[in-house]
Structures are given as C-alpha cells and as structure tokens.
Amino acid sequence: MNTFEKDKTYITHTYNRYPVCFVKGEGSHLYDDKGKEYIDMGTGIGVDVLGISYEPWIEAVTKQLHTLNHVSNLFYTMPQTDLAQALCEKTGMKDVFFSNSGAEANECAIKGARKYSIDKYGKDRTTIVTLINSFHGRTITTLAATGQDVFHQNFFPLTEGFLYTPANDLDAFIKLCEAHPEICAVMVEPIQGEGGVHPLDKDFFEGVGAYAKEHDILLVVDEVQTGNGRTGKLYGYMNYDVTPDIISTAKGLGGGLPIGATLFGEKTKDVLSSGTHGSTFGGNPIVCAGALAILDHIDDKLLDSVAEKGKFIKESFEGAKGVKSVAGMGLMWGIEPEKDVSTIVPKLLEKGVVVLTAKEKIRLLPALNIPEEDLEKAVSIMKEVLAED
C-alpha cells in the first residue's frame, strides 16, 4: 500500500487531508514525495515559526538529545528552568507551568483561574466568559470554552461554567458581567484564528482589561496562535495596553516539537500548589532546549521585519481582484476571496503554494523569517489565482 492507502486503512479519519505527502523541507520550502517544491505559507498552523529545519533549533535539540532526553518532573532540569526564566523575563509574568499543547495550556489556564477565585471568593464564583467565534481547543473543557456552536455537538455533556459574548462589543461584555456575579475570568484571543482571523479592536480589548481589573475578574489571554512573534510583537497582547493575569501559549514556541506553556502573573502566581496539576511530558528537556533556541532568535530586528512583511501582505491584497476583505496583523492574515475558498486551496497547491483556511478565508501564517523573495512569489501566485474568472 502507498501512504494514502495506509492512511485510509490505519488512521482515524478526523482530517480532510489534501492529496499531498510531504517528505522534507528547508526554511520556507516544502517538498512532496514526487519532488515538487512548495512555498510554505502555513508553517504547520503556525508551528514552524522560524521555518523548517532551522539550524540553531536543530543544534539545540540535537545537543539535548545526546545529553538527557527525559526525566520525571519530580526532579529538576536546566532546560525547563531556563525556558521558564526566559518567558517570565520577556513578559513580566511570574511563573510557568509546562504542558504539551495549546489545549492543555488552556486547560491549565482555566484551572488556575477557577482555583484563584475559589480560594478567594468560594465555590460560587467560577464562570469564565469567552468570545463568540473563539477557539480554545478540542478537549471537553476547551470545546466548552470555544464560542462556536459548531463545536458544541456530539460530545455531551460539555463542561459547565462558560458564557459567551460578542467580540468588539464592550457594552455587551459589561452587561453580561453585571448580570452574572459568578464570573471569575474572561478569556480572549488577541486575534481569533480558527474563527476567521478577526483581530480584537483596541478599545474593546483595553476596555475588557480595565473592567476586569476593577472587578477582580482575571484576564486570560490565549496566545496559542498569536504568540511567539506572530503579530509583530513577542505576544499579541503587547499590541494593546493590557496586562494579562494568565497567558497560554504553544505552537510556535516549540518550533516543531510539542509544547504548551501557561504563564501566571502577579495575582495568580503560585495559585497551582503542589499536587493540584501535573504533566508527565510537560517541560521535557529536549522540547525546552528547542524552545529556548526559538525565543533567543525572536529579537527586535526580526519583529520589525514581521511588521514590514505584514504591511506588504495587507497592501498587496487590499483592493486586489477577487478579494472581498483582508484582516490580520504581523504575519497572521485572513484573505476573504470572492469565490468559495475550498476551490482556491487546491489551485494554490497545484501552483506550489501551501496555505491554510479559517472559515471562509485563506489563512496565512508564514515563517517569521520567510525570505522576501519567497513571500513576494507566493503573494503573486495567490493574486493570480484569486483573480481568475
């Protein structure tokens, strides 16, 4: 059997895969099993944040492979503590819990928010507000946190204790909080990714932050997709005047290996005490060594270039033939075509460009260090396909 036949026979059918089998990659280039070359504008849904086979990441991971691959979290390891220090110093947060994915990081954030409130106010203040059209993961609890009805099917009963409010409607958020004194936290993505690439308005995000602070409602910021340089700042919330109480991040932090991290601020530090949470693989030395290499290379110069490349994408597609709308920030963009997006992705693959989708949009998450010539070529091909009659 070939790869496609093995997949059909042996793998659970939860993915609508495109008929392409990638076998290798380098930087922003992918190669399939027939030798065809593609420009990667999706980075494994924002994971290969500095491209494929990024040499400093390979060196860090390889060195750790030959040193210590895993020990229990009942012991200390240097890569884990060094990564936690780097994250706290770069964000101003106070401590970190490591896990293996964005969903796990969000589960930890939810647990931490509820424990903070229960410790301080008792068991009747545990509800968390999320935004309509949000996406926070695929576990039972993070599905419940996700503000999309399409995900609230098939897996009942979902975890209780979530309410939903429209993005960019501050009055609705405040009215909801006033009607529900049991609210303990609000959880938001700076840009709704899976929900269609919708950035939060500055007034809304900052207004939510101010109201939450005034009423001791924790502000939890989901940076699973927007974090680690994606928006032109190290974390998406840094584009706004807000101070989170809890941050979740994953995807690009690992550079290709699975990691999740939940960062706790001044209010919430130490809220998860001994025995209240844990993870066998969380903070694995190899993954943390790779993540440190990623963080070390997301500097101001790179972030400035992310902003410039984002400006190029925005200006290229705004008003272009076949394009209805453009939204995003940094190197996270949603391009809404006039035609059905499902018909466009195969055409782009045929022409050697890998993209993602989000609802009715093409979603772009290229490597932060994508060469300008690759970005320009991919954008040119996309514009040609979008303009076709």
**Which shape, going by the Cα principal axes?**
globular
SSE order: HEEEHHHEHEHEHEEEHEEEHHEEHEEEH
The biggest beta sheet reads: 7 strands, mixed
Oligomer description: single chain
In CATH, what is the class of the domain at 56-297? Alpha Beta
With helices defined by DSSP (H or I, 4 residues minimum), what is the helix count? 12
Mean pLDDT: 97
Total strand count, please?
17
Name the structural class. Answer: alpha/beta
Question: Widest sheet: strand order?
Answer: 4-12-11-10-7-5-6
Low-confidence runs of at least 5 consecutive residues: none
The CATH topology of the domain at 56-297 turns out to be Aspartate Aminotransferase, domain 2
Q: So, CATH architecture of the domain at 56-297?
A: 3-Layer(aba) Sandwich
CATH superfamily of the domain at 56-297: Type I PLP-dependent aspartate aminotransferase-like (Major domain)
* Radius of gyration, in angstroms, nearest whole number: 21 Å
Strand fraction equals 15-25%
Helix content class: 25-40%
Report how far the terminal alpha carbons are from each other. Answer: 39 Å
Highlighted features:
389 residues, alpha/beta, Aspartate Aminotransferase, domain 2, 7-stranded mixed beta sheet, 4-stranded mixed beta sheet, 12 helices, globular, Aspartate aminotransferase family protein, Aminotrans_3
